[in-house]
C-alpha cells in the first residue's frame, strides 16, 4: 500500500503521504484527500438523482438552474482540458499519474453532476433550488483549488518557455471562476412561495388517479413514485409523513400517502387476472371463449376479466401458478439482494479477525489498520443498505400478493353457487381472507430464508474451520444434537397449538351464541349453565396453553444457552488439542458462533411457516375450485311461445345439494327438501300468492327462481333476466350503513321516487322518530331496528330498485295488522301494481286481492286457483263479516324504535377492533446472546496472563471459571423462562374469569348498545394477545433491554474513549425512536381501523349474497371491496415503510459505532495503549448493535400496542353496568303459587334522558286468567315483559306477584319462576334435547310428550330423534319450527305465569290454531299473557289489554271492546280485516 502511494506521489516510501511540506500543505495530500475524495462523493450522490422522473408539465427555464447546469458542464470540459498540458509538462507540476487520476475523477464527477441537475430541473424540484446537499457537496472542492492556486503561484517560473505551466494556471483560474458562477446561480432567487404552491396544486391535479374514477385529492402525495435513488435508499420521502405522525396529525386513513402505481389494487388485480386468464385458456381455448361471451355470466355487462369460467376448464387453475406468473420474476430476483447482504454480513467477523491481528502484531504498517477500519465501515454500510432494501422490496411483493388473494376470494364468493357455498361455514370463508391470506404473506418472507440459511450455515462453518481447525466439530456436534430436540419440541408445540385453537374456536362459538341469545339466556336464567360450558372450554384451552408455554420455555432456554454451550465446546476442544487461545481466535470464533445460531434456531420455524402456507394455499384453492353459478345453463334463453309470460318453469326439479353429495349428507339436513314443479307460468303484471304450511318449500321456490338452487332438470325461463329481481327475503338482510343507503342500494337518489317508496313501505313515521332521520346509522345486521322496521327497509330497498319481477318472502310477518294492511294496499297493490309479484305469506287475510294462489306442500304445487278456491283450505278462522270497515288511522309515534336508534347514534361508532397484527419475526439471535457475565471474567483472565503458557494448571483454572460462569448463566436462563411461563398462565386464567363473570352479569341495555363483535373481540383477539403474544413480546423486550445494556457496558469497559461517540449517538437514537413510535402507533391504529371494514363488508356480503345477486349488484360490491382494500393497503404499506425508515437510520448509527471503535482502536494502537483482547471484545459485541437497537424499538412498540388488549379487557371487568345481585327476601319454594300479577303505577325508561316506555301503568291480572296484549309497534307491549322479568329496573311504582314485590326477590329466583316465549326464536347449536332442557332435569319421555303437544314430534323423528343436532342458530329447522321448539321449552318450565311474545308470527294458521289449543290445555289453570299481531289468536282470551304510547288505553273482554264504538281495539280489528 505504502509503495503504491509513494509511486503515485513520487515520495519516500517511509512517509508516502506527507501532510506538511516546506511550510505549506503537501501537494499529494491536497490532491488526494481534498480533491479526489470530495469529487468522488459528489459523483455518487449526483448519480443517485439521475433516476428522478419528469413532472407532468413544462417547467419555465430559470437563470439559477441555467447558470448551475452551464457551470457544471464547463467544469467537466476544463478538467478534461487540464489533462493535456499535464501530460506534456511531465512531472513539472506534480506527478503525471496523480494529475490524470485527479482530472479524470473531476471530469466524470462534473459531467454526472450536470446531468443530475438537468434531471432535477425537469422534475418537480425545478420550482425550488433543488436538494441543498448537492450544492453543498459541489463546493467542497474549492479549498483544494485555492491551495493549488497558491502552490502554483510559488512554484512556477513564468516564461514563454513554459507554456504548459501558464496554460494550467489559466485553466485553474477559469475553474474557480466557473465555481463562482455556480455559487451565484445557486443564490439567485427562485419561484415565489405562492407561485410554487399553485404549481404544486396543479401538479397534484395532473397526478395519475389511483383507481378508475377515484381521483387523488390535493393533499395526498403518491408514495415513492418520482423520488431519486438517494430518497429511495434512505426513505427521505417518508419524512413529511413521519413529521405529521409526530405532531399527531394522522387522524384518518386519507392522511397517508397514496400507494405507488404498481401497488395499487386495480393494477395488481388486472395483472393477476390477466395471468389467470392465460392459465385458464391453456387447457381449453374454445370452451373458454364460449363461456366468456355469455352476457349473464359476465355480470350483465359483458365485462368478464375474472376466473368466471373456472369450472369449464378440465383442470382447475392452480392459484400458486397464477401467483408465480404474476409476481414470480420480481420476487425471485430479490434473492440477489439477499445474497449480497448475506455475503457482506461475513465481512464483519473476517475484518474483525484481521484488525485484532493487526493490534496484536507490532510490525504491520499503519495503512493496513486504516484499510481494515475502512473495510469494516464499507462492509457494514453496504450490508445494511442491501438488507434494508431487500426487506422493503419483499414487503412490496407481499402487498401485491395480499391484494390479489383477497380480491380473488371476494370475487369468487360473489360468483359461487349457493349450494357449493354450504360446504364452508361463514366463519371459514372469512378466515380464508384473514388468516390464510396472512399465512401466504408470511410465506413470501420465509421463502428466501429457506435457501439463504443453509448457505449462511455452510460459510460460517467453513470460516470457523479456518479459525480453530478441527475443534469446530465439538461445537457442531452439540448443535446437531440440539436440532432433533428442537424439532421434537416444535412438533409438540404445533400439536398442542392445534388442539388449543380447536378449544378456542369452540369457546368463541359458544360465546357468540351466548351473546346473540343473551335475552333468552337471562329470561330462562341459564347464565350458570352457559358459564360452566364456556369455562369448561377455557379450561381445556388453558391446559393446552400450559403445555405450549412450558415447551416454549424449554425452547427459549435452548436458544439462549446454545451460543454459550457451543463456544465452550469449541474452546475446550481447541485447548485440549493443545493449541494456545489468542484474542484473535476467541473473538472471531465468538462472532461466527453468533452467526451460526440464528439459522439453526429459526430454521424449524421457517419450515413451519412454509408448511402452514401450503395448508392455507390448499384451503383457498379448494374454495376457488367450487362450482360457479352458471346462469347460462340454469336459465333457458329462448323466449317461450306465449310472450306475455314474465316467468315460466316446466318439468323442473331442484335441490339444495348436488346429487352426488346427497347420499353422504346426514338425513336431516335441509338438502332433503326437493322441489318439483311440473308447470308454472306467471304472466306479466300478475300478483301470485304462495301459501303452505311451514317447511313446505315456499322460500325454496323463490330461491329456485333466482337461481340459488341446483337444477336437476327441466326448463326455467325469466323475462329480462339481465335486469335481475326485486327480492325481499324472509330474514331481512340489512347493511351496516344509513337507512337511506340501505334503501338506495347503490342507485342514484331520486327524491320523488324515494318519497313514494318510503311512504308506501310505511316508513315515514319511523324515519321521523329516528334521531337522524334516514341518515341514522343502523348497526350490524340492523341491530338497532325492530323486526318490523328491518322487514320494511328490506322491502323498500327492493321497491326502489324498480325491477320488473318482485319476489316477496313474507314481508308481512313481522308487522302488526295495521301496518301490514298499509303495505298491502300502498306498496304491493299500489306502487308495484304494474309489476309481476310473487308473494309468500302466512297471513292469508291479505291474499284476497291476489290474481292466483299456489298451495305448496312437501315441495310440490298441490293446487293452483283463485283466492276463493284456495283460501278456505288454508284459513283456520272464519271471519265475522258484520263489523263495519273503518278508515285506517295513522300510526302513533313509535317510541321504542326511536330510543333504539338513538342508542346506536350515541354509541361512538369508532371501530373497536384491536386485531393487532403481531409480527411473526423471530427474535434476533443477539437478544439470545448469553448474559454478559458469561464473557467478562474469562476475558479479564485472558488479559492478566501475558501469553498463556499452555501449562495444565492455567488451562484448567480458566476452563473451570469459564464453565462455572456458563453453568450459572444457564441456570438463571431456565429459571427466567419457567417463571415467565407460570406468570403467563396465571394471568390468562384470572383475566378470562374476571371478564366472563362481569359480562354474564351485565344488564341487557349493555348488550343492546354494544355491537356483539366488539364484545367478542375482547374474548377472541384481545384474550389471544394476553394468552400468547404479549408474554412472548414482553420476554423479548426484557432480553433486548438487558442485551443492549450489557453491550454498552462491555464496549465502554473495553474502550472508554468510545463514550465520546456514544453520547451524541444516544441522543440521536432517543429522538429518532420517539419520532418513530408516535407515527408507528398512529399508522398501526389506522391499519386496524381500515382492516375491520374489509372483513365486515365481506361477511355482510356473504350473508346477503342472494339479495346482492338477485338485484345484480355484484359489480358494485366488488368495487367497494377494492376501495376498502386499497385504503387498508395504503396504511399497511406506509406502516411497513416506517419500520424500514427507522431500520436504515438505526443501521447507520450501528455503522457509526463500529467505525468509531475501529478508529479509536487504531489510534490507541499507535500510542501503544491498546489491548487487543478488549478491542476484539468490544467489536464482537458492537457488530450486533444495530440488531439490538431495532429489536428494542420494535419489541417496545409491539409490547405497547399489545398492552392495549389488557387495558381493554380491564375496562370491561370494571366499567360494565351489572344487574343487581342482592336478594332481600326469601320466597316459598312454590311461589308464585296462584299467578296473580299486579302492576302499580309502573314507570320505566330504557335509559336516562329517554322518554318513558311505560308511563304509570296499572292493572291487575287474576290467577289463571288469559290476557291478550295488543297495540301499535312500539306502544310498550314487549316492555311490559321486560319489566316483569326485571330485565330493566322500574323508575317508580312496583310489580307484585302473588302480593310479593318482585323488586325484593333475587333475580335468578324471580326469572326461574316465570316462563316466556320470546319474539325471536333463539336456539343454540347442540342437540334438540339440550335446547329444550339445558340443565338436564327432564326425562326423555317428558320431552317427547311436550314435543307431541307442540306438533313437532314428527319433524324431530325425521331429523333423527332428540339427539339430532339443530345446527348453528337452529339452521336445520325452518323459522316456524324454531318457534315451536321455543314454545315446547316454555311449556317444560311449568311456571304459574307464562308470557308469550308473538310466538306464532311465522307459523301457518292451522298450526297456530293447534298451538293455541295446546296452550289452553297445558296452561288451563295458569296465568297467560300473550302479545299478538294476529288479533284472531287472542279473540278467545278472557280479557284484552290495549297499550298506547306506554299507557294502558283499554282493558276489557274482547267481545265488549269489539262492540264498543270508537274503541282502539275495534279499530285495530278492522284494519286487520281490510
Give your account of this protein's structure.
The protein is an alpha/beta fold and 1474 residues long. It is built from 49 helices and 21 strands. The strands form 5 sheets. It has a 6-stranded mixed β-sheet, sandwiched between helices. The longest helix has 53 residues, at 1114-1166.
From the structure above, extract its key features.
alpha/beta, 1474 residues, 6-stranded mixed sheet, elongated, 21 strands, single chain
Structure described in brief:
By secondary structure, this protein is an alpha/beta fold. Helices cover 61% and strands 8% of the residues.
Low-confidence regions: 192-219, 286-313, 662-671, 877-951
Beta-strand residue percentage = 5-15%
User: How many runs of DSSP E, i.e. beta strands?
Assistant: 21
Mean pLDDT: 80
Lateral strand order in the biggest sheet: 7-8-9-5-10-11
Structural class of the secondary elements? alpha/beta
3D shape: elongated
Amino acid at each position: 500500500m505504502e509503495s503504491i502511494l509513494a509511486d503515485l506521489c513520487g515520495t519516500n516510501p517511509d512517509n508516502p503521504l506527507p501532510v506538511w511540506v516546506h511550510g505549506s500543505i503537501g501537494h499529494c495530500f491536497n490532491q488526494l484527500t481534498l480533491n479526489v475524495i470530495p469529487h468522488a462523493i459528489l459523483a455518487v450522490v449526483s448519480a443517485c438523482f439521475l433516476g428522478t422522473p419528469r413532472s407532468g408539465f413544462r417547467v419555465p427555464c430559470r437563470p439559477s438552474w441555467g447558470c448551475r447546469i452551464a457551470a457544471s458542464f464547463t467544469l467537466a470540459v476544463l478538467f478534461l482540458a487540464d489533462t493535456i498540458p499535464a501530460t506534456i509538462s511531465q512531472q513539472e507540476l506534480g506527478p503525471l499519474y496523480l494529475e490524470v487520476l485527479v482530472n479524470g475523477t473531476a471530469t466524470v464527477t462534473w459531467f454526472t453532476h450536470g446531468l443530475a441537475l438537468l434531471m432535477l430541473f425537469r422534475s418537480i424540484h425545478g420550482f425550488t433550488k433543488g436538494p441543498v446537499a448537492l450544492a453543498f457537496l459541489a463546493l467542497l472542492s474549492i479549498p483544494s483549488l485555492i491551495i493549488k492556486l497558491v502552490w502554483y503561484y510559488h512554484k512556477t517560473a513564468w516564461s514563454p518557455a513554459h507554456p504548459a505551466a501558464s496554460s494550467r494556471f489559466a485553466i485553474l483560474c477559469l475553474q474557480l471562476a466557473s465555481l463562482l458562477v455556480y455559487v451565484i446561480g445557486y443564490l439567485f432567487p427562485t419561484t415565489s412561495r405562492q407561485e410554487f404552491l399553485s404549481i404544486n396544486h396543479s401538479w397534484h391535479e395532473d397526478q395519475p388517479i389511483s383507481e378508475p374514477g377515484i381521483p387523488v385529492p390535493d393533499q395526498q402525495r403518491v408514495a415513492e413514485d418520482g423520488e431519486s435513488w438517494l430518497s429511495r435508499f434512505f426513505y427521505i420521502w417518508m419524512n413529511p409523513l413521519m413529521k405529521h405522525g409526530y405532531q399527531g396529525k394522522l387522524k384518518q386513513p386519507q392522511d397517508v400517502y397514496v400507494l405507488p402505481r404498481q401497488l395499487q389494487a386495480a393494477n395488481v388485480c388486472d395483472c393477476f387476472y390477466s395471468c389467470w386468464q392465460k392459465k385458464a385458456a391453456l387447457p381449453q381455448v374454445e370452451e373458454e371463449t364460449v363461456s366468456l361471451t355469455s352476457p349473464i355470466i359476465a355480470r350483465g355487462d359483458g365485462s368478464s376479466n375474472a376466473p368466471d369460467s373456472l369450472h369449464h376448464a378440465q383442470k382447475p387453475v392452480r392459484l400458486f401458478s397464477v401467483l408465480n406468473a404474476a409476481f414470480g420474476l420480481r420476487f425471485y430476483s430479490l434473492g440477489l439482494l439477499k445474497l449480497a447482504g448475506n455475503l457482506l454480513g461475513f465481512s464483519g467477523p473476517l475484518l474483525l479477525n484481521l484488525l485484532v491481528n493487526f493490534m496484536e502484531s507490532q510490525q504491520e504498517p499503519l495503512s493496513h489498520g486504516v484499510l481494515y477500519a475502512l473495510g469494516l465501515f464499507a462492509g457494514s454500510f453496504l450490508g445494511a443498505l442491501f438488507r434494508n432494501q431487500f426487506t422493503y422490496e419483499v414487503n412490496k411483493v407481499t402487498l401485491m400478493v395480499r391484494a390479489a388473494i383477497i380480491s380473488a376470494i371476494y370475487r369468487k364468493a360473489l360468483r359461487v353457487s349457493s349450494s357449493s357455498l354450504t360446504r364452508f361455514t361463514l366463519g371459514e370463508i372469512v378466515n380464508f381472507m384473514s388468516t390464510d391470506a396472512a399465512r401466504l404473506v408470511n410465506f413470501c418472507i420465509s421463502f428466501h430464508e429457506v435457501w439463504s440459511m443453509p448457505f449462511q450455515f455452510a460459510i460460517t462453518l467453513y470460516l470457523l474451520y479456518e479459525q480453530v481447525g478441527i475443534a469446530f466439530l465439538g461445537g457442531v456436534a452439540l448443535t446437531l444434537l440440539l436440532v432433533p430436540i428442537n424439532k421434537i419440541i416444535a412438533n409438540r408445540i404445533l400439536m398442542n397449538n392445534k388442539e388449543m385453537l380447536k378449544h378456542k374456536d369452540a369457546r368463541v362459538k359458544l360465546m357468540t351464541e351466548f351473546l346473540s341469545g343473551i335475552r333468552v339466556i337471562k329470561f330462562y336464567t341459564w347464565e350458570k349453565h352457559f358459564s360452566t360450558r364456556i369455562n369448561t372450554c377455557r379450561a381445556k384451552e388453558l391446559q393446552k396453553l400450559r403445555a405450549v408455554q412450558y415447551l416454549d420455555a424449554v425452547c427459549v432456554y435452548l436458544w439462549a444457552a446454545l451460543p454459550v454451550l457451543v463456544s465452550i465446546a469449541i474452546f475446550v476442544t481447541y485447548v485440549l488439542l493443545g493449541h494456545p487461545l489468542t484474542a484473535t481466535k476467541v473473538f472471531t470464533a465468538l462472532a461466527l458462533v453468533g452467526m451460526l445460531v440464528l439459522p439453526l434456531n429459526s430454521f424449524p420455524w421457517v419450515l413451519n411457516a412454509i408448511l402452514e402456507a401450503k395448508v392455507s394455499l390448499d384451503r383457498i384453492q379448494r374454495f376457488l375450485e367450487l362450482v360457479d353459478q352458471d346462469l347460462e345453463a340454469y336459465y333457458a334463453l329462448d323466449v317461450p311461445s306465449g310472450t306475455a309470460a314474465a316467468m315460466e318453469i316446466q318439468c323442473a326439479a331442484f335441490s339444495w345439494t348436488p346429487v352426488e353429495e346427497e347420499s353422504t349428507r346426514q338425513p336431516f339436513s335441509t338438502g332433503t327438501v326437493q322441489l318439483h314443479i311440473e308447470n308454472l307460468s306467471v304472466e306479466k303484471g300478475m300478483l301470485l300468492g304462495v301459501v303452505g304450511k311451514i317447511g313446505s318449500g315456499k322460500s325454496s321456490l323463490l330461491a329456485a327462481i333466482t337461481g340459488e338452487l341446483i337444477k336437476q332438470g327441466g326448463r326455467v325461463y325469466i323475462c329480462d333476466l339481465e335486469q335481475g329481481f326485486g327480492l325481499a327475503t324472509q330474514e331481512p338482510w340489512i347493511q351496516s350503513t344509513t337507512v337511506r343507503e340501505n334503501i338506495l342500494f347503490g342507485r342514484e337518489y331520486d327524491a320523488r321516487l324515494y318519497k313514494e317508496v318510503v311512504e308506501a313501505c310505511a316508513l315515514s313515521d319511523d324515519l321521523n322518530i329516528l334521531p337522524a332521520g334516514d341518515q341514522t346509522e343502523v348497526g350490524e345486521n340492523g341491530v338497532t331496528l325492530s323486526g318490523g322496521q328491518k322487514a320494511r327497509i328490506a322491502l323498500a330497498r327492493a321497491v326502489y330498485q324498480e325491477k320488473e319481477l318482485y319476489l316477496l318472502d313474507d314481508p308481512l310477518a313481522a308487522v302488526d295488522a295495521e301496518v301490514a294492511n298499509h303495505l298491502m294496499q300502498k306498496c304491493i297493490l299500489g306502487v308495484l301494481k304494474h309489476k309481476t309479484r310473487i308473494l309468500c305469506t302466512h297471513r292469508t287475510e291479505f291474499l284476497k286481492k291476489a290474481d292466483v294462489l299456489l298451495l305448496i306442500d312437501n315441495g310440490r304445487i298441490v293446487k293452483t286457483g283463485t283466492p276463493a278456491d284456495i283460501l278456505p283450505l288454508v284459513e283456520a278462522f272464519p271471519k265475522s263479516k258484520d263489523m263495519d270497515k273503518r278508515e285506517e288511522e295513522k300510526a302513533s309515534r313509535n317510541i321504542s324504535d326511536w330510543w333504539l336508534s338513538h342508542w346506536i347514534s350515541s354509541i361512538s361508532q369508532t371501530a373497536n377492533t384491536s386485531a393487532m397484527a403481531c409480527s411473526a419475526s423471530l427474535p434476533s439471535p443477539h437478544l439470545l446472546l448469553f448474559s454478559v457475565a458469561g464473557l467478562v471474567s474469562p476475558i479479564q483472565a485472558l488479559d492478566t496472563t501475558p501469553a498463556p503458557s499452555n501449562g495444565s494448571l492455567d488451562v484448567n483454572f480458566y476452563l473451570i471459571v469459564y464453565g462455572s460462569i456458563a453453568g450459572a448463566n444457564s441456570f438463571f436462563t431456565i429459571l427466567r423462562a419457567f417463571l415467565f411461563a407460570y406468570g403467563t398462565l396465571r394471568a390468562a386464567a384470572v383475566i378470562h374469569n374476571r371478564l366472563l363473570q362481569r359480562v354474564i352479569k351485565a344488564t341487557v341495555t349493555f348488550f343492546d348498545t354494544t355491537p356483539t363483535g366488539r364484545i367478542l373481540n375482547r374474548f377472541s383477539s384481545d384474550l389471544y394477545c394476553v394468552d400468547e403474544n404479549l408474554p412472548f413480546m414482553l420476554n423479548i423486550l426484557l432480553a433486548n433491554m438487558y442485551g443492549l445494556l450489557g453491550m454498552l457496558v462491555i464496549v465502554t469497559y473495553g474502550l472508554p474513549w468510545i463514550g465520546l461517540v456514544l453520547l451524541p449517538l444516544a441522543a440521536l437514537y432517543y429522538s429518532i425512536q420517539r419520532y418513530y413510535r408516535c407515527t408507528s402507533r398512529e399508522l398501526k391504529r389506522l391499519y386496524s381501523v381500515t382492516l375491520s371494514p374489509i372483513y365486515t363488508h365481506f361477511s355482510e356480503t356473504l350473508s346477503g349474497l342472494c339479495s346482492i345477486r338477485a338485484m345484480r349488484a355484484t359489480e358494485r360490491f366488488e368495487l367497494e371491496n377494492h376501495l376498502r382494500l386499497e385504503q387498508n393497503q395504503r396504511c399497511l404499506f406506509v406502516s411497513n415503510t416506517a419500520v424500514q425508515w427507522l431500520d436504515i437510520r438505526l443501521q447507520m448509527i450501528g455503522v457509526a459505532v463500529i467505525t468509531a471503535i475501529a478508529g479509536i482502536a487504531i489510534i490507541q494502537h499507535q500510542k501503544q495503549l491498546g489491548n487487543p483482547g478488549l478491542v476484539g471484545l468490544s467489536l464482537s459485541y458492537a457488530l450486533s448493535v444495530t440488531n439490538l437497537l431495532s429489536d428494542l424499538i420494535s419489541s417496545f412498540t409491539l409490547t405497547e400496542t399489545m398492552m392495549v388488549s389488557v387495558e381493554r379487557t380491564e375496562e370491561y371487568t370494571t366499567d360494565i353496568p351489572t344487574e343487581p345481585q342482592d336478594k332481600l327476601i326469601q320466597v316459598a319454594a312454590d311461589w308464585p303459587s296462584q299467578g296473580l300479577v299486579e302492576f302499580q303505577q309502573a314507570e320505566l325508561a330504557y335509559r336516562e334522558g329517554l322518554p318513558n316506555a311505560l308511563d304509570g301503568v296499572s292493572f291487575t291480572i287474576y290467577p289463571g286468567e288469559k290476557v291478550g296484549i295488543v297495540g301499535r309497534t312500539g306502544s310498550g307491549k314487549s316492555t311490559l315483559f321486560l319489566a316483569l322479568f326485571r330485565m330493566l329496573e322500574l323508575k317508580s311504582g312496583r310489580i307484585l306477584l302473588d302480593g310479593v314485590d318482585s323488586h325484593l326477590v333475587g333475580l335468578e329466583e324471580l326469572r326461574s319462576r316465570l316462563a316466556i316465549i320470546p319474539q325471536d326464536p333463539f336456539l343454540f347449536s347442540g342437540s334438540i334435547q339440550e335446547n329444550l332442557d339445558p340443565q338436564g332435569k327432564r326425562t326423555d319421555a317428558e320431552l317427547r310428550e311436550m314435543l307431541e303437544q307442540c306438533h313437532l314430534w314428527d319433524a324431530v323423528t325425521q331429523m333423527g330423534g332428540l339427539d339430532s343436532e339443530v345446527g348453528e342458530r337452529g339452521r336445520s329447522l325452518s323459522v316456524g319450527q324454531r318457534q315451536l321448539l321455543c314454545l315446547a321449552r316454555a311449556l317444560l318450565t311449568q311456571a304459574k305465569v307464562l308470557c308469550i311474545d308473538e310466538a306464532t308470527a311465522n307459523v301457518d294458521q292451522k298450526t297456530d290454531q293447534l298451538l293455541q289449543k295446546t296452550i289452553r290445555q297445558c296452561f288451563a289453570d295458569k296465568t297467560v299473557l300473550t302479545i299478538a299481531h294476529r288479533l284472531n289468536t287472542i279473540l278467545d282470551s278472557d280479557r284484552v289489554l290495549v297499550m298506547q304510547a306506554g299507557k294502558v288505553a283499554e282493558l276489557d273482554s274482547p267481545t265488549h271492546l269489539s262492540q264498543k264504538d270508537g274503541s282502539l281495539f275495534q279499530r285495530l280489528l278492522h284494519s286487520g280485516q281490510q
